[in-house]
Amino acid sequence: MRRGQIILFNCLAMIAAGLFLWLAKDTFDGYKIQILNLIAINIILALSLNLIYGFTGLFSLGHAGFMAIGAYVCSILIMTPDQKDMLFILEPAYDWVQNAQAPFLAAVIAGGLAAALAGIIVGYPLLRLGDDYLGIATLGFAEIVRVLANNFPRLTNGALGFKGIPDYANLWWNFGWCLVTLYVIVRLLQSNTGNVLKAIRDDEAAARAMGVNVFRYKLLSFTVGAFFAGVGGALLASLLTTIDPKMFLFTLTFNILMIVVAGGLGSLSGTVMAGIGITVLLEWLRVVENPVDLFGFELPGVPGMRMVVFSLALIIIILFRREGLMGMRELSWQSVARVFSRGKA
Amino acid sequence: MNSAMFIQHMLNSLTLGSLYALVAIGYTMVYGILRLINFAHSEMFMLGAYFVFWGITLGQLPWPVAMALAIAVTASLGVLVDQVAYRPLRDAPRISALISSIGVSFFLQNVAIVFFQAIPREVYRPQWLEDPIITHGVRILPLTLFVPFLSLLFMLVLLWIVYRTKAGLGMRAISKDIETSYLMGVPVNRIIALTFGIGTALAAASGIMWALRYPQLQPMMGTIPGFKAFIAAVFGGIGSIPGAVIGGLALGFIEIMTVAFFPDLAGYRDAFAFVLLIMVLMFKPTGLMGERLEDKV
Amino acid sequence: MADDIILATDDVTMRFGGLAAVTDFSIAVKRGSIAGLIGPNGAGKTTCFNMITGFYKPTEGRILYEGREVTGLAPHKVCKAGIARTFQNIRLFGNETVLENVMIGRHLRQKTGWLQAVLFTPAYLREDKAMRSHCLELLDAVGLADLADDKANSLAYGAQRRLEIARALATDPGFLLLDEPAAGMNPHESQDLMGFVRTIRDDFNLTILLIEHDMKVVMGICEHIWVLDYGVTIAQGNPEAIRRDPKVILAYLGEEALDHA
């Protein structure tokens, strides 16, 4: 398939997605639109984790920490000074927190940059560690972020968190950022830098022998991943309009890890598909936690059931289909075309 | 701070530290053999405490019987988890089993939320652990002596198993080289099961005593102590049982004393352990007593 | 140091704990030559390679490349200086294609980065194109151009060895270390290999140092040979001298063989 054709198909797919969103905006109810928004944000988060873990082989469990940083920075920047005046009831906000303000786009980018900076600071000492140690240390980082958020009331309003964050993150913003994330990560991975990252994942010693400054490239991947995790957190804050330290528990990272594993470590198209599937599944599973009216009988809801089913699904995937949906393969127009031509034959 | 208070703090450190140590032993044993961070270990801690609670309230069992039974049931559960969720992944990349254990951890936690409900529950404490002994102006709860004593007893039994029995020899052999152990006729799978059984039993015992010390049960109660115990194991040098004990005691001491001397830092209590972890990993990744592992080129 | 010496080691010693794996290892490799490092299993040959390429930092001694000290440099810096290697147990990037493997070796000489890739700058596109064609030429030189889009771990054994060499060549080395290039090859294949090693030496202006157990190969292509036993250099010289050296025969075959000889 020629390059021109691929570009054409990509443009067509984008236009189709745009049309779908435009129709959805006017016809879907609020709940369904919320799910669409969550899909976009989850894809951003999962793509960034897949870059770090699936493509570079860095087992990081710190995503919730980067998201929290992005969420807090963005929220502080988009709330008005009056709003912050009302909000900080434990202790008054620092002056610079009180007065800081930025338009939404700049605020989201600032959230991403803050998270990326945290990525560099954390990555510098930690990326020398082996896989499982790195996991537990980055998990520790995420917990430290949470503890700090609890203990700096003048910056974060402590355990109360923020309420009434302006809800700018609509479908266009979320899917726009989703597209930007996808584009940047695809280009990064298609460039020779992407080959180098995959080389580090496959055989670190051989990569070093080939002249790869392994640490620098790990830090690059980790920082880019952290940036988009921060962006995802920023969008999520504006979508949900409330944040507090409890929101950024390990469960959040777990959900994203689940998407990455289910889609396939090292497959971007797998991540996109799993992002859609798992977000829908998670919302659909809310049903089992709410009381159900069955032929006039009221069945009580079962709290916790959602995560029981969800974690069981992860165990089953890892036991029986470790490579997830796509393994390391990508869905391409060529493979789509092949399926169709096989259908005709 | 006067000396009476200091002694009090010391005893508290010892209690907390020995509870961490018991859990850390389970982490370190499993890691030593399978190179697996068993995230589900902290749920064993929680389940042990719950099983005692149900044994007493539903089963009307006397406290010591409930405790012994709970330890046995939890230990079997630990073995079962290994068989179902980790054993099929022995030949898979190492992180697969780790992800599986994260899955098991969330699964057990939420099963507990479903069946035991998220509301915190009050725990029965035998009266004789509650009546304080007062000598020389120091007020001591028997509990703060009972916990370290019982922990010590468990540890001695463990050391005897590891260093004086044939099964223990097998454990040490497997942790050196699992492939060769297979070839030498060590019953590897039976010994791994035994390791999970023992490790889990200690976690359950720790959870039960934790519930005496902080008498409230809830399904998430294992998470933070579990992490901290793991950190204690890393601090002491993962794979080393004496290291886990020392790491646990040190962590208990650091936590209690920091809060005692710098009350302002109380809010950061849960972060100490993680800061310690990151520092250990940065400066001495093999911990205090650990062996050095190198990537062979 | 004389100009015709490209790589020299000066009393290099490597101890692991108390155990000396290599003692006072001193060699001088002539520019443009093919040299050999032989010795029984466990003699410390790969340890020498690991020290030269920066994977181990020698306990004592110095390593000079082109008159510049490279002792204890990180592997990627050694590679940048111009020393490339292959591994005894082939270590390719198995999930990547044949071409990608070679391009990873080439990244070292690349000037544009991923940000330019994201922005589609003309400089990036130009360099990317040039790099691809250069890497395809390298694959052509080792006879793998037809397999450029296959996954590296799907290649046959001999092809994997050649890919590893192409990948090393992509880093633009002046000095190439080959760790048992003929391992696992039948006599016919190792015959081809000898021609191949000479060709790349000539075509890429290389100096080559190789570890090899196949004596036919070693004696056939090496101009100078060093023999290690228990980490000690027991002999050196041209193939003829080595073949007749009683110490070498002793190290390889034991006391009795010498008696019969």
From TrEMBL, chain A:
This is Branched-chain amino acid ABC transporter permease. Keywords: Cell membrane, Membrane, Transmembrane, Transmembrane helix. It comes from Solidesulfovibrio aerotolerans. It is a multi-pass membrane protein. The chain crosses the membrane at residues 6-23, 35-55, 61-81, 102-127, 170-189, 219-240, 252-282, 302-320. The keyword Transmembrane helix applies. The keyword DNA-binding does not apply. One of its GO terms (molecular function) is branched-chain amino acid transmembrane transporter activity. One of its GO terms (cellular component) is plasma membrane. The lineage of its organism: Bacteria, Pseudomonadati, Thermodesulfobacteriota, Desulfovibrionia, Desulfovibrionales. It is found in: Cell membrane.
TrEMBL record, chain B:
It is found in: Cell membrane. Coiled coil: none annotated. This is Branched-chain amino acid ABC transporter permease. One of its GO terms (cellular component) is plasma membrane. The keyword Transmembrane helix applies. It comes from the Bacteria. One of its GO terms (biological process) is L-alanine transport. The chain crosses the membrane at residues 20-37, 44-61, 98-120, 140-163, 191-210, 230-254, 266-283. GO terms for molecular function: L-isoleucine transmembrane transporter activity; L-leucine transmembrane transporter activity; L-phenylalanine transmembrane transporter activity; L-valine transmembrane transporter activity. It is a multi-pass membrane protein. Keywords: Amino-acid transport, Cell inner membrane, Cell membrane, Membrane, Transmembrane, Transmembrane helix, Transport. Belongs to the binding-protein-dependent transport system permease family. LivHM subfamily. Pfam families: BPD_transp_2 (PF02653). The lineage of its organism: Bacteria, Pseudomonadati, Thermodesulfobacteriota, Desulfovibrionia, Desulfovibrionales.
From TrEMBL, chain C:
GO terms for biological process: D-alanine transmembrane transport; L-alanine transport; L-isoleucine import across plasma membrane; L-valine import across plasma membrane. This is ATP-binding cassette domain-containing protein. Keywords: ATP-binding, Nucleotide-binding, Transport. SMART domains: AAA. The lineage of its organism: Bacteria, Pseudomonadati, Thermodesulfobacteriota, Desulfovibrionia, Desulfovibrionales. PANTHER family: AMINO ACID ABC TRANSPORTER ATP-BINDING PROTEIN, CONSERVED COMPONENT OF ABC TRANSPORTER FOR NATURAL AMINO ACIDS-RELATED. The keyword Transport applies. The keyword Transport applies. Pfam families: ABC_tran (PF00005), BCA_ABC_TP_C (PF12399). One of its GO terms (cellular component) is plasma membrane. It comes from Solidesulfovibrio aerotolerans. Residues 7-255 form the ABC transporter domain. GO terms for molecular function: ATP binding; ATP hydrolysis activity; L-isoleucine transmembrane transporter activity; L-phenylalanine transmembrane transporter activity; L-valine transmembrane transporter activity.
